[in-house]
Amino acid sequence: MEYDIAQTEGPNASPLRRISALACAGVLALGIGACGGDDGEDSGGSGGGAAGSGAIKHDAANTGKPVITIGSKDFTEEFILAEVYSQALQAAGFRVRTRLDVGAEQEALKAVERGDIDAYPEYTGTALTAFCGVEAEDVPKSETTAFSEARTCLARRQITALPTTPFTNSNGFAITKEEQEQLGGITKLSQLAGKASGLTLSGGDECRERDDCLKGLRETYGLRFKRFLEVPLSRRHEVLRSGQSDVGLVFTTDGQIKADSLVLLEDDRDMLPPYNVSLLVRDEALAAAGPGFERTVQLVQQGLTTEVMQELNSRVDLDDERPAEVARQYLVEAGYIADE
To answer: What pLDDT, in 10s, does the model give residues 159-188?
Structure first.
C-alpha cells in the first residue's frame, strides 16, 4: 500500500490517555520535554504542532526537499512504526509517502538498496543475523554493542542505521498474575530457581534448541522444567490463560500481554539478545533530507517504551484500529503534534 500521508484522514477515536501517561513517563525519564505546555522552544529542527515543549516544529525549508518514502515489513508493529516516523516527518515539513508491507527483512533491505523506499524500521538483532552473517548465539547482549555492530555493517551497503528505540522486541517469558501469587510474587527469571521443576514451559517448535529460549534457560539460569509444551506461536497466550502452561514464551511488545494482564519476567542475567528498532535509511536519501530528518526521528521515538508499544500493538491487533490512527494518537498524546 502506498499513499501520501497528507491525504490520509485523522483518527476519530478518543484520546488514549494511557498512551499519554506511558509515553510521557518514558520521555521525561530520558530528560526530553515532550509533555506539558508549549514554551515555544525549538526542539532541534523537527516539525510542527503546539502540543508541548518538545513538539515537532514545522520547517518550511523541508518542503522543497525530495519526497521521502518510508516502508515497513509485514506485521503490525512495523506498520505502526512506519506511520509514526512518516507522520512525524510530515509534521516537520517533509513530503512523505508510505509503502507498508514490502515483505520480510530481505525484501525490505533490497527495496532500500534499489531506491524503491528510502527507509524502514529494522531490529538490531535481525540486522546482524540476516544481513551481517552473525550467528544468533553470537549477537551481543549489550544494546549499545549490537547497534554499533549493525551500524558498521550496514554502512558498507551505503545505509545508515539511526539510533535505536528504547523498547526491544525480543523473546520474553510471562506468567499470569495468579501464577505469580502462587510462586511468591516473583518478578525475575532467576527467581524460578527451585520452582521450575514443578512447572510447564510453553514455546514454539524451535524453542528447545534456541539460546534465547529453553536451551538458554537451562544454560544461563540452570532451570529444569517439569515439562515443555510445544505449541504454535499463535496459541502462546491461550495456553497461559487456560492453565496448560505455567511459564510461556511471548514477544515482549505483544499487545496481548497487557490485555491478558500477564507478568513479563525480567531477564536479570541478560540471556536475551537486544532487538531494539533502528530506522535504516539509504545514505543518499538521508543526505538529501538534511539533519532535521534524523532529529525528528530521534525525538518521536523516545516515548516508545516496551509498555507503549504493547499498548499501540493492542490497539491494532485487539481493537481493530488502523495503524495510521494509532500512530497519530501516540504522537498527539505524547505531545509531539497538536490534535487538529
So the answer is: 999 999 999 998 899 999 999 999 999 999
Counting every residue written for the chain, the total comes to 340
d(CA 238, CA 254): 13
Phi/psi zone of residue 148: left (φ > 0), alpha (ψ -120 to 50 degrees), beta? alpha
Query: Hey, what's the cell of 281?
Result: 535509511
Residue 304 has pLDDT above 80, yes or no: yes
**What single DSSP character describes residue 32?**
-
Q: What pLDDT does residue 206 have? A: 82
The predicted pLDDT at position 275 comes to 94
Do residues 263 and 187 touch, judged by C-beta distance below 8 A?
yes
How far apart CA 32 and CA 35 sit, in angstroms, is: 8
Model's pTM, two decimal places?
0.80
pLDDT band at 39; cut points 50, 70, 90: very low
Rounded to whole angstroms, the Cα distance separating 213 from 309 reads 22
* d(C-alpha 35, C-alpha 177), whole Å: 32
In the prediction, which pLDDT does 57 show?
94
DSSP state of 236: T
Sign of the CA dihedral with 165 first, then 169, 172, and 174 last? positive
Q: Which amino acid is at 200?
A: T
Contacts of 334 (CB under 8 A, 6+ apart): 19, 20, 23, 24, 27, 34, 35, 300, 303
Instruction: Give bridge partners of residue 97 from the DSSP assignment.
Output: 4, 69
**Which residues have CB under 8 Å from 249's CB, separation 6+?**
171, 172, 173, 201, 202, 203, 204, 207, 213, 233, 236
Residue 56, C-alpha cell as written in the block: 515537532
